[in-house]
Design brief:
By secondary structure, the chain is α+β, with helices and mostly antiparallel strands. The chain has five helices and nine strands, in the order H-E-H-E-H-E-E-E-E-E-H-E-E-H.
Amino acid sequence: MKTKKSERDAPKNFAVNRQAGHYYHLLEKFETGIELTGTEVKSIRDGKVQLKDSYATVRNNEVWLLDCHIGGYQPGSYLNHPAMRERRLLLHRGEIDKLRGRTQERGLTLIPTRIYLKKNLIKCELALAKGKTVWDQRETIRRRTIDRETAQDIREHQRRSRSFER
């Protein structure tokens, strides 16, 4: 069975941090590589990765991913990796300098939003984020509800107008 080229090249998400959009204003996103061991790659491909409560920081001109849980690989035996170890993220020097400057501003942090496969490489999408207040979170929920109801009303109206045309 042949697959289309666009289907093969489309990124496959292994983990998505859905709470990031709820708790943070995502200002800017960066695509980064991750320095992994062999068993970590196999565990991620099995879907044993969790981004909840993970974050990134800039230390010694390098960006590090912290508190990202990658479960053990069953057949890995004694070669398995520690599940919560710090992992280096791979970025260009200019991007690292930009992130260092922006994270030193008050209230900005680096949040991984997803880990995915792109052209047979495992990538991490990193977002520069500012924390939301409780009021902002409620406003986001309120706006999402209004948008959903509006879309439902539009669909209902279009459905009715099509039935009258027949």
